[in-house]
Design a protein that fits this description.
With 396 residues, the chain is α+β, with helices and mostly antiparallel strands. It has ten helices and twelve strands. The protein has two domains: 241 residues, no CATH class; 122 residues, Sandwich (Jelly Rolls).
C-alpha cells in the first residue's frame, strides 16, 4: 500500500508552513512600537547631507546607498533645518539601527537590541517620526546628526530623503501619498479571504474547491507581501517585525498556490515537472522560514534566490501553457496564457526595478500585475466552475 504520496507530502508541508508562520507572527507581536500622536504644515524634504564615515566627510544627495563598508560601521549624516514652528522629522531605516540628535542632544533612536526578536541579525525596516523639543526662539537653525550603522546581513544601506513638518503634516504626507497603494494591497488580501471562504462553501465539488483554495492563497500571499512593503503600513502599524515576516513569507510562498491553481485549471500532459516545481518552491520557502527562526539566514538574504526562482517558475509555467494551448489545443491553457504572461512581465519588471533602475516603489510592479491577473483569473475561474457545474448536472 502506497502511503507516502504527493498529497501526503503537500499536507505535511502546508502544516509545517502554517505552524512556522504562526510561531513567527506570535513572536513578533510583542515588539510593537509606540505610535506617536498626530498634530499640521507643508512637508519639506532634506535631500543633501554631509556623511561622515571613519572621520572622512562627503557631501551626498539623498536618496543614497552606502556600499562596501564593514558591518556595524557608523555613518553619521549631518544637515540643518530652520525651525519657525514646532515640527517633527520623518526618518526611515532599512535594516539599520539609528540615533537622532538635534543640537547635540539625543532626541530619538531605533533598532536597539531587545526591540526586535533575537532571530533577526538586524532591526527590520521602519519609518519613525521623531518629535523635536520646543525652543523659545522662532526661525532657529537646528543642526541634526543621524547616525546609522551598516547592517550585519546586508552589503548595502540605502538612505531615503528625510521629511520635515509638524505632526499632522507628516500624517497627511504619509496618508495622501501611499493610501491608494495600501487600499489596493488590502483588496488583494480581502479577495484572498473571500476566495478561501468560497472554497469552504464549495466542498461538494472537489475540483472547484481546489481552484478557489489555491487562488485565494495566491492573493493572500501577494497581499501580505505588498502590505509589508508599503511605507504607509510600516508607519501606521508600527510593528516592523510583523511586517517583515508578512513581506517575506508572502513573497516566498506566492508561486506555489499559483502552480496549484494552474494544475487544477489545466490538465497538462506533462504535469509531473510542474508539480515538482510547485513542491520545490513551497519547500524552499518553508526552509527559509526555518533558517530565519534558527537565526542562521535572514529572510532578506534569501530574497535574490526567490526572485530568480519565481521568475524562472513563471517562465516555465508560461511556456507550458503556450505549449498546451497551441500544440495540445487546450482551451483552458489558452485562456490562462494571457493572465500568466501579464504576471510574468510584472515579475520581470519588479526584478529589474529592484536591482537596477528604481523607477517606482518596490513591489508596485508586481502588485499592479497581480490586480490585472486577479481580474482576468476571476473571469476564468467563474467560467471553469460554471462549466464544472453544468457537466455535473448533465451527469446526474
Amino acid at each position: 500500500m502506497r502511503i507516502w504520496t504527493h498529497r501526503t507530502y503537500g499536507s505535511l508541508l502546508a502544516a509545517a508552513a502554517v505552524c512556522l508562520l504562526l510561531l513567527l507572527f506570535a513572536w513578533a507581536l510583542p515588539y510593537r512600537l509606540q505610535v506617536l500622536p498626530g498634530g499640521a504644515t507643508r512637508v519639506q524634504h532634506v535631500r543633501e547631507a554631509i556623511a561622515t564615515i571613519n572621520g572622512q566627510q562627503e557631501l551626498i544627495t539623498l536618496p543614497h546607498t552606502f556600499r562596501n563598508l564593514p558591518p556595524g560601521t557608523p555613518i553619521r549624516l549631518t544637515f540643518q533645518v530652520y525651525e519657525n514652528a514646532p515640527f517633527s522629522l520623518l526618518v526611515k531605516s532599512v535594516y539599520s539601527p539609528f540615533v537622532v540628535a538635534c543640537d547635540g542632544a539625543r532626541i530619538g533612536k531605533y533598532g536597539e537590541k531587545g526591540t526586535y526578536p533575537a532571530f533577526l541579525a538586524d532591526p527590520p525596516t521602519s519609518v519613525q517620526m521623531v518629535n523635536l523639543p520646543a525652543v523659545p526662539l522662532a526661525n532657529k537653525l537646528r543642526t541634526f546628526n543621524i547616525t546609522y550603522r551598516m547592517p550585519q546581513a546586508r552589503a548595502a544601506l540605502p538612505v531615503a530623503p528625510f521629511a520635515v513638518s509638524n505632526m499632522s503634516g507628516i500624517y497627511r504626507y504619509e496618508f495622501g501619498g501611499l493610501i491608494c497603494g495600501f487600499l489596493l494591497e488590502c483588496s488583494l488580501v480581502f479577495m484572498g479571504v473571500v476566495l478561501l471562504l468560497l472554497s469552504c462553501l464549495s466542498h461538494r465539488v472537489a475540483h472547484s474547491q481546489k481552484l478557489l483554495l489555491n487562488l485565494g492563497l495566491f492573493f493572500l500571499a501577494a497581499g501580505f507581501w505588498n502590505i509589508g512593503e508599503n511605507d504607509f503600513s510600516v508607519f501606521t502599524i508600527q510593528n516592523p517585525t510583523l511586517l517583515y515576516l508578512m513581506t517575506f513569507s508572502g513573497l516566498f510562498y506566492v508561486v506555489a498556490p499559483l502552480y496549484g491553481f494552474a494544475l487544477q485549471a489545466v490538465r497538462f500532459r506533462w504535469h509531473h515537472l510542474l508539480t515538482a516545481i510547485m513542491y520545490f518552491s513551497a519547500s524552499a520557502a518553508t526552509l527559509a522560514l526555518l533558517l530565519q527562526l534558527m537565526g542562521w539566514v535572514m529572510l532578506s538574504e534569501s530574497l535574490f534566490f526567490f526572485q530568480i526562482l519565481h521568475c524562472l517558475s513563471l517562465i516555465i509555467l508560461t511556456a507550458a501553457l503556450g505549449y498546451e494551448g497551441i500544440r495540445g489545443h487546450n482551451t483552458r491553457a489558452r485562456w490562462m496564457l494571457i493572465p500568466i504572461t501579464v504576471l510574468l512581465c510584472s515579475a520581470l519588471l519588479e526584478l529589474v526595478n529592484y536591482h537596477f533602475c528604481h523607477w517606482f516603489d518596490f513591489s508596485l510592479g508586481f502588485m499592479s500585475g497581480s490586480i490585472l491577473f486577479l481580474l482576468m483569473l476571476l473571469v476564468l475561474t467563474a467560467a471553469i466552475i460554471r462549466r464544472n457545474a453544468q457537466l455535473r448536472e448533465d451527469y446526474i
